[in-house]
Structure formats: structure tokens, C-alpha cells
Amino acid sequence: MAVVFKYRARIVTDEDLTFIRNLIEQHPTASRRRLSALLCEAFNWVQPNGTLCDMVCRSLMLGMHRAGMIQLPPVRQVNPNPLAVRAKPKPVTVEDTELCRRLRQIQPLRFVKVRRTKAEAIFNGVMEQYHYLGYTQPVGEHLKYLVYSEDRPIAALAWSSAPRHLGPRDRFIGWSSPQRRQNIRFIAYNSRFLIFPWVHVPHLASHILGVMARMLSRDWEHLYGHPVYFLETFIDPQRFKGTCYRAANWIALGRTTGRGHQDQTHRPNRPLKEILAYPLTQQFRQLLCQA
User: CA-based angle 152:153:156, to the nearest 5?
Assistant: First the structure.
């Protein structure tokens, strides 16, 4: 069977094309959204947690429509892009008295998943107010945590889907392009880490990273139906040395190219970042390189 179209890791053969054309013909009143759902069900295109791969399927069908391979029904409704009109998080009030203690004096710490909870507004607000990058809504699979000492939040972390292309990381793992496309979901990217500026506790940051390394894969699998085997992050060497990551045994892999994932010029257009990584299992290469 000849491959006639490809979108990301999805391929469409000439036999698939005939099936899709018949599907559209058999459902003349169906919307584009409904056709996408029907195709996902027919081809069993589902995420590990059982959710239909609707957005990827819809983009694939739109690409085929634009290429003249299929004829989709007219667009019935254009919904506003919530990311384009997303308001910045509102300022929040948290206890900001100085906390200067030893690590053992503030334990035990509580790690609370706050995504889709009332406490998510606290997370978003403190990131916008106190993180040098501000708050950005994570894309794809992601988790947000607040770290509490007793009833007082003292730190916040966000983990999200990993960048698809990262040279030093990909060379360190040693996977092929098809393996990377298939298994990139098993990597989590630490997109934000904030110790509140009034919290001064030696070794707190590396301790938090150590606890996260033990619990994140379990939490990820509970929400998304699959574990993670590898953690990564970027640090700006002009601002930070990554001391807490190195103290938590993260590995320096190299630096980014400074071009971004949508680069068209092949020239640096943003600051270079250092890439740090932490394998969660000794078998990470076998797991990430398996078919």
C-alpha cells in the first residue's frame, strides 16, 4: 500500500484515503468535528488514557482537504482561540513573612496537585508575580504543584510535554526519529520552578526536586495513562548556574541552538539555554528507544 499523505507520525495509505472518502460520503450532514471523531474511532486513534486523538485527526483531515485529496463540509462555527485571548492571572495574596529555617524544621512538606482545582489560581498568580518568565499556560500534557509547609505554600512547579526536537537530549538518549516521535510522551519538561522569594531554607530546592523525581511518574500515569522515564529542563546561564538541579544529581547535556521550535532562518533568535536532565530509571534508553 502506497503512502499518499503524512501528518506528524500519522500516515495515510491509498486504502485509508478510500476509507476516509467513503466515511465522508456516508455522513453527509456530519460536521468536521463529528467526522474527526468517527475516523478516530474507526482507526482506534486514542491517547494512552483512552481519549480520542481528535485535534491531531482534525488537523490531518484539514491538511488532506487543503491538498485536494478529500472534500470536508463547510465550517459551521468558528470558536475563539482561548489561548489568544487568555487574560493574565490575577494577583494573589499569600503569606509573605520571611521564612528562615533549616529544612528539617519545615518538614513534612506536602506536594499538592493543583491543576483544575481552586488552588490553581494561587499557582498561576504567584508564577505571574514572582517568576522572572511570568506565567504561561502549559501546552499538552502537564501537571502543576504547590509545595506546602503546614498550611503555607512555599514553592511551585510546573511539568509539561517535552520539546519534540532537542539535539543534545536526543543524542544522549540515542533514539531514532521514529522512536522519538513515538516515545516523546515519556519525557516530562520542568517548565517552571519557583521558591517564593521570602523563603530562605538551605537545600530546599534540591530536596523538592528529589521528591518530585520519586512521585511525578506515578502522578503522570494516574492522569494520562502512561508513566514518564526521563525529566529535563532549561536554565538561562546568564542568570543561573543550576545549582539546585546539579545538587539533585541532574546531568548537564549541552546547550540549545537558540533558534526555537518554529525556526525558519536557521539562525539564533533567542538566548541559549543549558539543558539539564534526570533519568528516572536506569533502563531509560531501552524504554525510550523501544518500538
Answer: 170
